[in-house]
């Protein structure tokens, strides 16, 4: 089978990481969750009392920040496993805040491009198809209604043992983050011209994975 790279973009909690992980298992590919990297920046800024608005201080901090995404899906920051901590709701908003800065983005984009310089990667985020992996063989733009995304995040928080707020509060945070991610000046979330849009509001995870695989299969045939 031919190896390709797959870019998955879309708003928060649309199922990008869950679907990417499952497709990776089927293809034996490596998943790179770029949102986790912005979350690490948000978390470290929060812990060090660095303002999310202070681009210079954030970039200075990044110079001494190691972020490692392991093949089994764990996230290490400066040698510490922060996989669960970075999923807290306040860190989600912090990640969205720090991600609007041009120089924070260029630092992380460079790291992401270095990680996926070969084939066999599925990378998910907001600017993968438009900036990071512009030449990915397959680009998927995953969407779902804010309500169904809020319900998924609510269930995920319970599963992870994170503090839980009500679904409407989560939906409001999701709308706020969508707005911020779509309207920022630098690499706003937008569907790449050559991306395939997939609305997962009424799809199960298995159905979504099946839909993605139906786009992957013709591309990985040896004679494709
Ligand atoms: O995918 P996520 O919800 O874990 O991402 C957290 C935040 O990081 C998101 O609100 C916007 C930002 N982000 C980004 O700007 N670019 C990416 N490629 C991935 C995430």
Structure description:
The protein has 224 residues and is α/β, with parallel strands linked by helices. The chain has one domain (5-207): P-loop containing nucleotide triphosphate hydrolases (Rossmann fold). The protein is 50% helix and 14% strand. The chain is built from nine helices and eight strands. The longest helix has 17 residues, at 167-183. It is globular and about 55 Å long. It starts with a strand and ends with a helix. The structure holds 2'-deoxycytidine-5'-monophosphate (DC). 2'-deoxycytidine-5'-monophosphate binds next to helix 2, helix 4 and helix 8.
Notable features of this structure?
five-stranded parallel sheet, alpha/beta, 224 residues, three-stranded antiparallel sheet, Rossmann fold, binds 2'-deoxycytidine-5'-monophosphate, 9 helices, 8 strands
Provide the gyration radius in Å.
17 Å
Please state the overall shape, judged from the principal axes of the Cα atoms.
globular
CATH superfamily: P-loop containing nucleotide triphosphate hydrolases
| Lateral arrangement of strands in the main beta sheet | 2-6-1-7-8
Order of helices and strands: EHEHHEEEHHEHEHHEH
What's the CATH topology name?
Answer: Rossmann fold
Mean pLDDT: 95
Outline the low-pLDDT stretches: none
Q: Helix/strand/pairing class, anyone?
A: alpha/beta
Indicate how many domains the architecture comprises. Answer: 1
Highest-level CATH class: Alpha Beta
- Largest beta-sheet details: 5 strands, parallel
Helix content: 40-55%
Please state roughly what percent of the residues sit in beta strands, choosing from under 5%, 5-15%, 15-25%, 25-35%, 35-45% or over 45%.
5-15%
Using the 3D structure, state the CATH architecture. Answer: 3-Layer(aba) Sandwich
* Span between termini: 10 Å
Work out the number of β strands: 8
| Helical stretch tally | 9
Q: What small molecules are bound in this structure?
A: 2'-deoxycytidine-5'-monophosphate
């Amino acid at each position: 089978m031919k190896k390709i790279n797959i870019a998955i973009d879309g708003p928060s909690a649309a199922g990008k990481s869950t679907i990417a992980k499952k497709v990776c298992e089927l293809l034996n590919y490596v998943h790179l969750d770029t949102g986790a990297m912005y979350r690490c920046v948000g978390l470290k800024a929060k812990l060090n009392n660095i303002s999310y608005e202070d681009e210079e201080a954030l970039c200075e901090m990044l110079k001494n920040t190691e972020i490692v995404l392991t093949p089994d899906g764990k996230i290490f920051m400066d040698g510490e496993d922060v996989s669960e901590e970075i999923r807290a709701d306040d860190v989600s908003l912090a990640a969205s805040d720090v991600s609007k800065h041009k120089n924070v983005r260029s630092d992380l984009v460079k790291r992401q491009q270095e990680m996926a310089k070969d084939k066999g990667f599925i990378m998910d985020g907001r600017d993968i198809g438009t900036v990071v992996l512009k030449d990915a063989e397959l680009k998927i733009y995953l969407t779902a209604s804010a309500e169904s995304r809020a319900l998924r995040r609510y269930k995920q928080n319970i599963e992870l043992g994170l503090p839980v707020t009500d679904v409407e509060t989560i939906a409001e945070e999701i709308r706020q983050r969508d707005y911020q991610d779509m309207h920022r000046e630098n690499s706003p979330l937008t569907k790449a011209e050559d991306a395939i849009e997939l609305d997962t509001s009424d799809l199960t995870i298995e159905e979504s994975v099946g839909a993605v695989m139906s786009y992957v299969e013709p591309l990985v045939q040896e004679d494709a």
